[in-house]
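Morning run. Coffee first, then this:
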Amino acid sequence: MFDREISGICPLCNRQVSGKVYRKNDKVYLDKVCPEHGTITDMLSSNAGLFADRMSMLEHASPNRCSKEKCRNGIFNCRDHVGRKSPLAFIEITTRCNMRCPVCYIDAESTGRDMPLAEIERIVDRITEEDPNTHLILIGGEPTIHKEFFKILAMIRQKGLMKRTFIATNGITLADKEFCKRVQDAGIKKFYLGFDGTDREACKKIRGSYIAYDSVRKALENIRENGKAWIIISITAVKDLNVEDIPKVIEFAMANSDIVKRIMISPEVFCGRINEKEDLAAERLTGDCIETYLRDFLGVKVATVSISLFFALLRPLKSMGLLAEDSWMTAAPSPFCGQMGLLWRPKGSKFRSVVDVFIKDADKQIYEIGRRVNRLADSIEKARAGFGSGFPGRAGWFLSVYLYFLPKYFFMLAGRLNWKGVFGMLGAFVKAGFNTKTFKKEYFGEKIELFYLLGSDKYNYIWDKMPYCLTHHYRLHPDTGEVIKVPGCFVVAFREEVERRASVSEEV
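And here it is:
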């Protein structure tokens, strides 16, 4: 996993360059070597053990249809990749903003551009046609200041996508009670709210003013007053500013769990308004750094695990044909990217993690389980190829699945379960009279979903991430005007290329 050659981009001149990933002093670094700018060093992980565990999930994964050979000249040229379904679909409806945050990855400001309503409708029509079960997220800039914002909401509702639509906002407009009510009356019940901590001064340094700190709290009050809602509070984690405040954010979210359901942590990326760093590796905040800190502070063995692990756990069922290929995830996400978990705190008790409850010695075993089920899936797929398509072959395969592979899969998982935790949860469910609502209240107390979303900039961008990307930005092709999808890790790091060029050459 270490001392591995990679392909990437020079962050200074954009040319295609080679490099390597390597371990040093229990950290993982990335070197890119440019013939013009020399060696540029970045840090990929502050915990080599965690990094190796996560990246072991990549050894058995393969992109869904697309490949490096197809995509290397630009995502616009890879129709297979563009055709993949996505759990999250973003539409940037405006580049205008009512703030000028120092950490803004797109350098948004008041003098941006609103996407015309007709163009947004073309994009929504494409989503409705090819991926209606995605979660649609309206972003900016600040999406709520689009001059035709409420016409956009009315159009989305008319297309039947409102139920799964979020708006990503800094909360300033929602702090106005009348505006907030109008948004919720239009059908929006899901929100990404920028919430960078409980330390007012730290938030001012991150956002450039106090207005976002004060507004988001007022927005939460207004949203709650207007009825049922599902809120993600989104933290831009900045090294030496708000990382140690994250536990207090978790407590805040749990105290407001009637409407706040998830915390999304995104470490600062060095693009947009911040695109130069003198000591890049020292200033980089990684997801593994956050995970290690939270494990120690919260007293849990595992706070989150790579989303690619969940794909691995389902893969044998897909290989056996017991789970549809397009169910839940259509392809394995990159272990470089998102992580997820569930934390809760029973009344009068300490924090608990769902991974710790279900997995024995979770910090040592959780990724070993993933590696084992991946190897099982490999053997299932190899065996399946040997059965014919006629009746004898189908009958033989059916018997192999139910008499051998499926039992082997369940015994493999059962051997690593924390049965004390499993039976404790089952006992609590019985005690609650099999009433799900009562069980959740009594067993979990205060709970919150916890996600890390690890973004890319030109410094840490490497090829390994893009073919596996599960988040897409819908945009219009800069040359032809057709509706296209661009992987999130690409559109953030190479924003100017997405907007300016129809393709990315060897020297972008």
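Confidence is low (pLDDT under 50) at residues 501-508. Good start to the day.
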